[in-house]
Amino acid sequence: MEKTSKFAKIYLALVFIILYAPILYLILYSFNSGGTMNSFDTFTWEHYAAVFSDTRLIMILINTVIVALLSALIATIVGVFGALGIVFMRNKSLRNSILSLNNVLIVSPDVVIGASFLILFTMIGVKLGFASVLISHIAFSIPIVVLMVLPKLQEMNSSLIDAAADLGATRKDILTRVIIPFIKPGIFVGFFMALTYSLDDFAVTFFVTGNGFTTLSVEIYSMARAGITLTINALTGIIFVVTLLLVIGYYFVSQRGKKPVGLGVRK
Amino acid sequence: MKEITRSVIAIILVCIALFFVNDYLNKSSGNASNDAVTIYNWGEYIDPELLTQFEEESGYRVVYETFDSNEAMMTKIEQGGTSYDIAVPSEYAIETMKENDLLLPIDHSKIPNLTNVDPYFLDLSFDPKNKYSVPYFWGTVGIVYNPALLDGQTFESWEALWDLSLKGQILLVDGSREVIGMGLNSLGYSLNSTDENELQEALDKLNKLTPNVKAIIGDEVTQLMVNEEAAVALTWSGQAADMMWENEELDFSIPQEGSNLWFDNMVIPKTAANVEGAHAFINFMLGAEVAAQNADYVGYSTPNVAAIDLMDEEVTSDERFYPSEELRDNLEVYNNLGLEMLGVYNELFLEFKMGMN
Question: What is the CATH number of domain B33-136+263-322?
Answer without folding.
Answer: 3.40.190.10
